[in-house]
């Protein structure tokens, strides 16, 4: 109902909305850093210039206390209820590698692993083999194995020991248990299916486990595979259709391109640096109304517990901000997908700061964009999935409800 | 569920609750006004006296980003979920003109329009003819047309080119499309019904379109009519029944009387000035427990982008406030139904400030009643439909839930 209301009220116009997502932006005060957060520590003269004219607030990705993965966090950012739809790990991996996964396909996240002579797993990641070796091994597997039990098998290499397997066939279910036992020293598990269709998939997976092992017998340390995250894409109304807006995604990491692709955004080609992303934004700017602009470095800093790296990620974005502002977006939002506090070195449940700049935003008059200011900002503390309706409203794209 | 809980916990007592609704009160800081809002700009010594002892907060009429019409906003103020029930434009117009619309009747918002010799619409509002002319033409139509296809037709003039048509008969549906194409240079549309009952209504509407045209053939520029907003009143549990409280509505504009009538409040007769409204409040004060007290001027100022008029509307209310306080209400709420920011000149989605004064309110200690103070007020930012339970609680009218 809520969704329908928003979709129904959406009106097209020529406005441009840029949503900058600094991955893992949110943080908590660090006693080792004078009780300041990375956002407070960073020198951000350009953000500071915009701050007083902006509306600030905080976004709760799922519900209080729930730490989101990147999938649910991005669904929420894109205006979808992360409790209604979940993106499986297999789908995320496959989309991220540029593999198209159809509604009826099943995608699997696979690892090369090291298996001892007793069949037990010695290293779940095969010593984190180089990406190039992983690519070669995937080529080897693809050459030998094209199908199993009448189901087509598509093998695509990822980073290091990671790869994706996509099963394309009729009557495949995705309620299948992992073959990865998550611990070394154990035998790989048999995949099992929850229903008839998923049993068919599990059967194919078990055949593949054997075939792959045979094909890899001389490839120590990458002489085995493990499967997890059997999944099909969620059946969502696409973002451009739902919000009546052409949407572009600019990101350097495959997973984020995949997340944007799942909701039907156009993925804009770009190189791997922030500079490249800015160029990509400029190039496609006239063709779209909405821009998802993803920056990874902040999250990497958080995950590594590296305050300086997270601060530097924020500062690099700040330096690039004037180029974005030159495009004169009607609505600019700066936020994150979740918090990754440096002192925690992992995703957390803490609300994510957001600032929104637009002609008709409430001008909070707050001096800087920080977690603490966001607590008292005019947007308040709201579910992350409410951000999209707010941005559409600020762009004049949400019509009046009722007479 | 929520509704039931509140209704079940309602207990009668002798307390008095006054809800002052300054229409369109909410606003946003204006760069042209030193980044102040009208509430901040207005001189409000009487509100200021009460402010520190009050609880403040913000009300979201529908959901984040959704701009409400007056209908949904008032349903929310009156404690109803505006996403569950919608008041159609026809009903709103008819009730506002003092026409009783029964549950099975269908009300239509009608316009006089100008039609060219080719039958195409030249002006959807017939040059905004004077109200008196509209009244004469309605009298002409009423004299000639009393029924169509066995359905009684009630014609009531409104302001300028506007009038209401209420159809009273058996088996009428309200899922009928507008005959107003919303654009000049087009032919009026045929009404169509979604189901059998609505097809009957559509048929009557199409007959009326023709009859009206014939009757108006010499009335250029008001020589045609357009219909929209076919609707019947929503089937709501009445406010007095639901909250176990006798409720009075004091308003000068027809539409707001209509909105109060829809939820079953008693409409108190009053003149057209704030002075008249205060007198009406005093006169009926001993007979009711709840008073909806509506002031229109603030919204008109917002809609016209007229800062001074909005400020003056607030200041006039402030001058009248001591007379209201002399009545010693147990609970006083001052709020709006939605925001109408002066710089936007239209309704907006921004949350609406509210202050609540009662013996048992949290005393926020904030110096003035302003949007910014309301952000940090003790009521927080809550759905507008939560206001009624809060007011009933402050009046000692909501019993304990559970042992």
**Which geometry of chain A do the CA atoms define?**
globular
Number of strands of chain A: 14
Number of helices of chain A: 14
What is the beta-strand fraction of chain A?
15-25%
The largest pleated sheet of chain A is described as:
8 strands, mixed
Average per-residue pLDDT of chain A, rounded, comes to 95
- Structural class of chain A comes to alpha/beta
CATH superfamily of the largest domain in chain A: Alkaline Phosphatase, subunit A
Report how far apart the termini of chain A are: 19 Å
Unreliably modeled segments of chain A: none
CATH architecture of the largest domain in chain A: 3-Layer(aba) Sandwich
CATH class of the largest domain in chain A: Alpha Beta
Number of domains of chain A: 2
C-alpha Rg of chain A (nearest Å): 22 Å
Q: What share of the residues of chain A lie within helices? A: 25-40%
Written overview of the protein:
2 copies of one chain form a homodimer. With 403 residues, the first copy, chain A, is an alpha/beta fold. Chain A folds into 2 domains: 243 residues, Alkaline Phosphatase, subunit A, CATH 3.40.720; 141 residues, no CATH class. Helix content of chain A is 33%, strand content 19%. In chain A, the strands form 2 sheets. Chain A has an 8-stranded mixed sheet, with helices on both faces. In chain A, strands 3, 4, 5, 6, 7 and 8 form a 6-stranded antiparallel sheet that branches. In chain A, β6 and β7 form a beta hairpin. In chain A, α10 runs parallel beside α12 and α11 packs antiparallel against α12. Chain A is globular. The first copy, chain A, starts with a helix and ends in a 9-residue tail after the last helix. The model of chain A has no long low-confidence stretch (mean pLDDT 95). At the A-B interface, α1, β14 and α14 of A face α4 and α13 of B.
């Amino acid at each position: 109902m809520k969704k329908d209301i928003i979709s129904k009220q959406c009106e097209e116009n020529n406005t441009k909305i840029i949503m900058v997502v600094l991955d893992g932006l949110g943080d908590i005060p660090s006693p080792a850093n004078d009780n300041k957060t990375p956002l407070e520590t960073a020198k951000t003269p350009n953000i500071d210039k915009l701050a007083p004219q902006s509306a600030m607030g905080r976004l709760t990705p799922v519900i209080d206390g729930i730490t989101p993965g990147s999938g649910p966090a991005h669904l929420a950012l894109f205006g979808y209820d992360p409790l209604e739809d979940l993106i499986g790990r297999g789908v995320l991996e496959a989309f991220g590698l540029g593999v198209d996964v159809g509604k009826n396909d099943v995608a699997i996240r696979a690892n090369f692993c090291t298996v001892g002579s007793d069949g037990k797993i010695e290293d779940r990641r095969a010593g984190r083999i180089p990406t190039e070796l992983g690519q070669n091994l995937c080529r080897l597997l693809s050459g030998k194995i094209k199908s199993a039990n009448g189901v087509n098998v598509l093998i695509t290499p990822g980073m290091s020991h990671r790869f994706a397997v996509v099963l394309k066939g009729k009557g495949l279910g995705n309620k299948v248990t992992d073959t990865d036992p998550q611990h070394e020293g154990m035998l790989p598990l048999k995949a099992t299916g929850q229903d008839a269709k998923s049993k068919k998939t599990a059967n194919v997976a078990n055949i593949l486990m054997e075939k792959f092992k045979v094909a890899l017998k001389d490839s120590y340390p990458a002489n085995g595979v493990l499967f997890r995250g059997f999944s099909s894409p969620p059946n969502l109304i696409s973002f451009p259709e739902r919000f009546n807006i052409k949407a572009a995604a600019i990101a350097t990491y495959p997973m984020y391109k995949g997340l944007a692709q799942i909701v039907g955004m156009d993925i804009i080609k770009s190189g791997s640096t922030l500079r490249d992303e800015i160029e990509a934004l400029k190039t496609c700017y006239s063709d779209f109304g909405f821009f998802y602009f993803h920056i990874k470095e902040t999250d990497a800093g958080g995950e590594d517990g590296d305050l300086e790296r997270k601060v530097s990620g924020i500062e690099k974005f700040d330096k690039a901000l004037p180029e974005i502002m030159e495009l004169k977006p009607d609505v600019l939002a700066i936020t994150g997908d979740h918090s990754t506090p440096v002192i925690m070195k992992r995703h957390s449940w803490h609300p994510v700061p957001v600032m929104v700049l637009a002609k008709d935003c409430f001008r909070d008059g707050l001096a800087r964009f920080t977690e603490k200011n966001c607590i008292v900002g005019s947007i308040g503390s709201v579910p992350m999935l409410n951000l999209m309706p707010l941005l559409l409203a600020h762009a004049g794209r949400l019509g009046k409800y009722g007479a």
